[in-house]
Amino acid sequence: VRKMMEDRSVKKPPGCSSIEVEDAVHEFMVGDMSHPQAKEIFAELQRLSRQMKDGGYVPDTKAVLHDVEEEEKVDMLFYHSEKLAIGFGIIATPSETPLRISKNLRICSDCHAAIKFISNIVGREIILRDTNRFHYFKHGVCSCGDYW
């Protein structure tokens, strides 16, 4: 499929997620390190990652279609745009504030599973709009019933 896309000059847009905080829209691309609070965002995601693993989360590396080692696939999943937006939302808003994320592509299976864990760990509602539907995460459960 990728070869055919390349032959026809078809390009998939990069993943982009946005979150509004204090009347400003913050956009994150896959692997984005350009945000002024990037260090704090990545530190928060590292903290969450440890807690998620302790809670039984296992990264779904099938979501990474690149031909790389398994460990590199896990690292690539860590930098998806919706996770960066959520990490920012957690550090930039009061703990009772729901997080509302918009994404330009469909959420991958790993991010869906990870956000369920994150919603349970931080005790927040996370509403994510992707190209297919709204996902409402609360207490480790998604409103889509894991059908997306």
Q: What share of residues are in beta strands?
A: 15-25%
Structural class: alpha+beta
- What is the average per-residue confidence, as pLDDT, rounded to a whole number? 90
Q: What is the ordering of alpha helices and beta strands?
A: HEEHHHEHEEE
Strand order of the largest sheet: 2-1-3-4-5-6
| Biggest beta-sheet profile | 6 strands, mixed
Rounded to the nearest angstrom, the distance between the terminal CA atoms is 22 Å
Radius of gyration: 15 Å
Number of strands: 6
Principal-axis shape equals globular
Count of DSSP-assigned helices: 5
Question: What is the structure about, briefly put?
Answer:
The chain has five helices and six strands, in the order αββαααβαβββ. The protein has helices at 2-7, 38-54, 70-78, 81-92, 109-122, and strands at residues 16-21, 24-29, 99-103, 126-129, 134-138, 141-142. The two termini are 22 Å apart.
Describe the structure.
The structure is a single chain. Strand 4 (126-129) and strand 5 form a beta hairpin. The chain has a six-stranded mixed beta sheet with strand order 2-1-3-4-5-6, with helices on one face. The chain starts with a helix and ends in a 6-residue tail after the last strand. The chain has helices at residues 2-7, 38-54, 70-78, 81-92, 109-122, and strands at 16-21, 24-29, 99-103, 126-129, 134-138, 141-142. It has five helices and six strands. The chain is α+β, with helices and mostly antiparallel strands and 148 residues long.
